[in-house]
Batch of 4 targets.
Target 1
Amino acid sequence: MKATICVLPGDGIGPEVTSKAVAVLSKVASKFGHDFTFNEALMGGIAIDKTGTSLPAESLKTAEQSDAILLGAVGGPKWSDPTASVRPEQGLLQIRKHFDLFANLRPVKAYPALAQHTPLRPDLLDNVDMLFVRELTGGIYFGPRQEQGDGDSAYDTELYTVPEVERVAHVAFRAAQSRRNKVTSVDKANVMAAYRLWRRTVVKVHEDYSDVELDHVLVDACTMYLMTRPASFDVIVASNIFGDILSDEASVLAGSLGMLPSASLGSGTMGLYEPIHGSAPDIAGQGKANPTGTILSAAMLLRYSLGLEAEAKVVEAAVEKTLAAGARTADIAPRGGSFISTNEYADQVLSAIE
Ligand code: NAD
């Protein structure tokens, strides 16, 4: 198959990890006889430095002419002034909105090879395999807000409409049908009106999916259950802010923030694929970045945008094999233990694809 992939390396460790995911996709292309074209474009702090805006029109055009987008991460101390009128994350919010990528899929798996690396009892990690479906283009990150410089009040608004909740709920129920048929909806319906709307809408959508079990968990309780009974979750559907926070918490189960991939999808096959971590300026340029989250994001790209399920599984199996063989980047190495560089780790994943 022929496909064009827009690559937005971004800032910090972004270029280090996206280059590894591109190498993996290239390897998959040659192994399976596909023809992938990679078009690199600017986004984030680097784009601000070069063009004055975090998502230049040319980058958006490159993305529009592609089948999928692979992103590293954006941001860093150089561009962190919260009062600046141009900020790196604006490009990210803009591109999600532009392509109406309303559902953010974040799978979280506990790898047996890394069980000792988490702060949890290893037996709690048996069979941990969950999928967050986070609403991505609505809620408090996009609702009406007021900021008054140094004024003594400010607000953001948690605003959801029925169609926004319906479409993300459909994504969650459909995903559950290809997994273990269970959806947990997270809300704060006991206190907030927006979440009473959320809950009643999810209940209504559930009527179309009688084969899927649905339960509701308040967000505060969910933070606890993720640590005390993580294996009980299958698909978790959550608002923009709750999904953001809970999936970072859940990354502890996988051993490191560097392990987790994500896919942001709309109603068609176009998607944006990125690791859930940020630009990690503290380790940028040191060969310490774990490229797994980005490599697994590339696997999601193969699955969701290109429909190449077998190829996606080959990449996921290569990561498991690499971890099982003992390869460790700094973030997943045992305390005081040895670790290998980003390049060496990625080379082992590439060999495992052979
Ligand atoms: P971060 O995710 O960049 O880093 C948090 C910690 O995790 C750091 O100690 C970092 O070294 C470590 N880490 C992250 N990814 C890693 C990897 N692949 N391998 C090994 N270790 C890894 O979060 P932060 O420090 O809060 O934010 C840094 C910058 O990234 C900020 O400017 C923030 O705005 C931005 N950010 C961007 C995105 C995005 O582009 N989607 C997401 C979150 C944060």
Target 2
Amino acid sequence: MYNREEFQRAAEFIQSRISAQPSIGLVLGSGLGKLADELADRAVIPYADIPGWPRSTVVGHGGNLVVGELEGQIVAAQQGRAHFYEGYTLQEVTFPVRVMKELGIHSLLLTNAAGGVNPAYQVGDIMLLEDHINFLGLAGANPLMGPNDESLGLRFVGMSQTYDRPLRQRALEVAGEGGIPLHSGVYFGLSGPFFETPAEIRMIRALGGDAVGMSTVNEVLVARHGGLRVMACSGITNRAIDVVDTELETNHEEVLEAGAVIVPRLTTILKGVLSNFPT
Ligand code: HPA
């Protein structure tokens, strides 16, 4: 368990390395960190330098916090994130969200790579999260377990208005203007690191999941605990396999390869939202 001073210490360190105050946080998932290269006047702060900050060991996840200007907004972009399956606790996984909140951001925009469970989803499509199922979280593996610091947020967190409606509406407008296939759907959050069995995929579909992945839900939970506005997008990197006895097998390479079409699409969506950020 962390105490608030540890979040503040990390935030103070970041403050000492930047000149402009970020108001929006970005979390850039598998293969998506390149987006941070678009930030103007950027300060690049290696995670290793920030006290307490967890580092991703996964290929495709960079390891920097990049603070700079994008579409008229000062953003703090995480190039890569730590995951539960790497052996981090859920408090460690969500430490960056707490620090971003201490830095003064009001909104958090997250991206991830996910498998398409909904048969209508194609590789390269984007899914805007309108809701999620935190499968482990429901059973007690979530970062809000333990004593609650009331100065960070309430003990009991409402989750029915998690994915900010004006932000979603704006994203849908931007995608419509840009001809980007953007679905609204339910993200099913698991721990990984294994990809799901076909029977698990059929279960996830039956339970209402449209896309499946190994991140995001914990960060979103902590963001909502801290009162941040949240938007999240999944890049569909592969179609989840729902039958046995097939030649198909999901692998990390295809997840990274799909980034080539997903990155420009997510970049367009995020820039469009930032350039006309709904109040
Ligand atoms: N399952 C879980 N996580 C993922 C997948 C998947 O198929 N693709 C990318 N991340």
Target 3
Amino acid sequence: MARRRLSQHQKKRIDDAQQALTSANDSHQQGLVISHHGGKIIVEQEDSSLATCAVKSNLGAIVCGDQVIFEKTAENEFRVLAVKARDNLLQRLDGFGHVKSVAANITQLLICLAVKPEPNLFLLDQYLLSAEQQRIEPVIVLNKIELLDSTEDPYDLDSVYAHIGYKVIKISVKERLDLDQLKSVLDHNTTVLSGVSGVGKSSITSELLPDTYIKIAEISSANEEGRHTTRTSRLYHLPNNGQLIDTPGVRGFNPLLDPTQPVSAGFREIDQHSADCRFANCKHINEPKCAVIDAVKNKQIADSRYQHYLRMVSPD
Ligand code: GDP
Ligand code: ZN
């Protein structure tokens, strides 16, 4: 925690320094990072023109969605000098358990599920917890609904997840079902797609991006010898002030869980009931007069969510 407070303090100092940087020098400009590839960053300026920038060392990871201060160093040469303070930073765990930054200043995480491969609801709850901890609004998308036998509430997404306030959207890219509903949740938001391999993230991305962008993506992937898909993250503008940050290399990322935050705070219905527990530090495992355990008993809290909570609190 001390470390966090320090970093808040440092952040303020960096902010002040950046403020001084921008006001001190007219040649400094601000822009939005729309791509990061091979040590070069593409920054979009306010007039929509693009600047390919080198990066001053010691700036740490710079990702799509970052606002940066940059300067012109020569004709058509630019350099990023500073990264502005972020509203949030979506992070993930890589295959070695290292924390990696995915995108910055996002407002929404689409958690993509499908009828096939069948959803893993424990993983869904991990994604939801991770999003809550990172202050990013999660939206649950179920794809391939044309494969469902009935229209009944699949995987309890309505009765459990919509019930506690999560937006649930059910679509079929193949049959083009309810794609408008999906598109409208992207309006006025900066969105990242996540979910395991095979659920249809690439298919959804192709649906969402205007044709011009798809052509650009095809050309850039054709240029990358032997590669079928480009793995560069990229921010795309959508109609109605929406932005989609496509992270092709890391869409199936492992959610990052913050061990310094209580798990219960990220389970919204558990958090809500915990105010009525007898003990302020109740962990809702076996304590007396636990309002959460009572709520599970009388089915106000779904048992599946509570079991996942218990697994996350004590993973063994
Ligand atoms: P990703 O790994 O999450 O990016 O998934 P893809 O977009 O590559 O899709 C995985 C497979 O599911 C592909 O064969 C798609 O054609 C297929 N797919 C995508 N959307 C649908 C859908 O709505 N219904 C069905 N039946 N298949 C779909
Ligand atoms: Zn309790």
Target 4
Amino acid sequence: MKNEVMELARLLKSSKHVVVLTGAGMDTESNIPDFRGKEGWWKNRDPRTVATIDTFHENHSLFHQFYSMRLKMLEGIKPHRGHFILAELENKGMVQSIATQNVAGLHTMAGSRQVYELHGNIRNIRCNNCKHGAGVENFLEKETCQFCGKDALRPGVVLFGEMLPSEAWDGALRDIEKCDLLMVIGTSLEVYPVNQLPMLTKGKTVLINMEDRGSEGLFDLKIIGKAREVLEELHNTLEG
Ligand code: OAD
């Protein structure tokens, strides 16, 4: 791993515009399960039976149970050293932005400022009808919207079949198209359209992931390891 991390440090130092694209593997070391890993959310569940707008309408108790469980699990969850290292790199001007599929907000909590939340944020509760905001407690209590009174509340995440938030998508796309280094961390790249992003940059591409996902030819450099360990090693290499 050491040689690959030295190569990444070299790429970082020689790049002017660096974007980081993260997935659930970035957050597992903060004790948030991923989706397709050994103990991932989708291991014993088909996402189409729960994370869809049809389930929201037709099997609301299942929808509510699943997202309540995920929200409750986030209580006390904190960013790990890897999130803080990415925020430090942004502060030093070595990273320009982070595009993430993660919905728990850990990059922002760690101090990253330019964060594109491509799949939304699970704590941004809103009415499914009028989009008026509400609190996590209102969702957990299964309240209907206090503003329009017409519909149930939902977390502000992208469900299967829904469009990505256009502002986040446009920002990420713009940055990725012009960046000269894209670091992709902890994602299986199985979900469209985010899995197209690494193909849209003219810059160098680096994958940091616990397993080699194949993706032949897509990455100039692959570092197989845990996000936190690799980022700590990168930090030490840059400081040393
Ligand atoms: P996945 O669960 O599909 O992939 C996570 C990847 O991270 C896997 O390849 C793991 O091996 C790897 N991984 C796990 N822990 C790691 C660690 N500590 N360090 C490095 N790598 C690690 O998660 P995503 O690709 O993020 O969307 O999934 C994409 C989307 O699918 C999610 O945003 C969610 C889900 O359905 C929606 O709900 C819309």
